[in-house]
Structures are given as structure tokens and as C-alpha cells.
Amino acid sequence: MSTMITEECINCGACEPECPNTAIYAGGVQYEFNGKMFDALSNDFYYIVPEKCTECVGHFDQEQCAAVCPVDCCVPDPNHVESEEVLYARAKTIHPEKEFGELGASTSHFRKG
Ligand code: SF4
Ligand code: SF4
Fold first, then answer.
1. What dihedral do alpha carbons 37, 42, 48, 52 form, nearest 10°?
2. Does residue 17 have its Cβ closer than 6 Å to ligand 2?
3. What pLDDT, on the 0 to 100 scale, is given for residue 1?
4. Which of helix, strand or coil describes residue 4?
5. Can you tell me the mean pLDDT for 38-59?
6. Which of 3, 77, 79, 113 is 20 to 30 Å apart from 53, CA to CA?
7. CATH 3.30.70.20 describes domain 3-111
8. Residue 2 has what pLDDT?
9. The dihedral of CA 25, 7, 19, 84: what is its sign?
10. Which of helix, strand or coil describes residue 43?
11. Residues 23 and 93 sit within 8 Å (Cβ to Cβ)
12. In terms of pTM, does the model score above 0.85?
């Protein structure tokens, strides 16, 4: 599933630069997806584009937005439940130039003990 930002967001902006997939945008700011621009998904808070979020699979062992958020408002989105396989395929699609190795504990929160 993708990660979502709840209404508890205080708009501090700490999460945006941490996302390896450029999936986080400030409220009211248009987002880019597949070379096209789309209207903001939230006008009031930072938001995550589900089609660009991989729960950091392929990059890190935990969701980087959740790791830095001071108010713990980056949480799993129950409306976007996805498998590790789907998320990993998305990471590869978003970064066609990157050499991804086998997923492991350091590159997928699904593999953490
Ligand atoms: S979970 Fe990872 S990929 Fe998804 S929005 Fe947060 S930092 Fe970006
Ligand atoms: S780090 Fe948390 S509080 Fe700050 S902008 Fe991101 S979601 Fe909002």
C-alpha cells in the first residue's frame, strides 16, 4: 500500500526531500506523473501521490517520510494495499536508469525481521 499523510500534518516540509520517488508535494502544488502535471490532491497539507509511492521498497528499510515526520502523520493508506512485488516493480519503472539488486532487509520494510 502507499503511504498517506493525515490531517495532522503541520506542513513542516521535512518529508518532501526525503522521498526517493518524488512522491510528496506541498498542499496546493501540482504534481508530475509520467511527464504530465496534475492538480494537487490536497490544498491544505502535504500529500503523497499513490502512483509514485513504493513505501520506499527498493531504496530503504523503512518509509523515509514516516521516519522524519515530527508528528507521525505519514501512515499506511488502507485504501491502497499493495504487495512488495507491485511496489518493487513500481520502483523499477520510476527509476529505469537504476540497477536494483535483490531485495533485502535494507531495501524493503517487508523483509525486516
Ligand atoms: S513511503 Fe517512501 S516512497 Fe512513499 S512517499 Fe514516503 S518517502 Fe516517498
Ligand atoms: S514531515 Fe510530517 S508534518 Fe512535516 S510536512 Fe511531512 S507529513 Fe507534514
1. -30
2. no
3. 62
4. strand
5. 97
6. 113
7. yes
8. 87
9. negative
10. coil
11. no
12. yes
At 112, is the pLDDT very low, low, confident or very high (cuts 50, 70, 90)?
A: confident
| All three cell numbers of 14 | 521535512
Residue given cell 499506511 in the structure block = 76
What percent helix, strand, coil does the chain show, rounded to 5? Answer: 20, 15, 65
pLDDT tens-digit profile of 24-45?
999 999 999 999 999 999 999 9
List CB contacts of 43: < 8 A, sequence separation 6 or more. Answer: 27, 28
Pair 1, 75: CB distance under 8 Å: no
Give CA–CA dist 64/40, Å, rounded.
Answer: 21
- Computed over every residue of the chain, the mean pLDDT equals 96
Q: What is the CA angle 110-13-56, rounded to 5? A: 15
Q: What is the 94 CA–ligand 1 centroid distance (Å)?
A: 13
Ligand 1 environment, Cβ below 6 A: 3, 18-21, 23-24, 48, 53-56, 63-65
Distance CA 81, CA 18 (A): 22
